[in-house]
Input
Amino acid sequence: MGLVDSLVVFVVSWIIGTVGIVAGVRAVLERKTDVGHAAVTALLGAVVWGVVSFLFGWIPLLGILLVLVAWVGVINYRYPGGWKTAAGIGVVAWLVAVVVVWVLSAIGVVAPNVLGIPGV
Output
């Protein structure tokens, strides 16, 4: 994959992640959120996911759990409500990202392996 393709995948993934987090915040906190704040959260979450996955992802089961906790930790840091709220936002964000990627894939816009939220 070339540089341009990688940049397109990055931008599409970032947009999908941002949409997922906006939806998660609206559903769980029942309030609007600034899209810019959600975009920074999606970017930070992806970076933290990548770093923790690189360092610990090779450990069976524990690695996956550490990566997930780190990602939810970013949401927890960026939004009020504590760990349960952050986990709820994360679940909604992940579900929205799965649906968006599935729809975009079904109409031929993206490949099914595009990542918007880690694990999608």
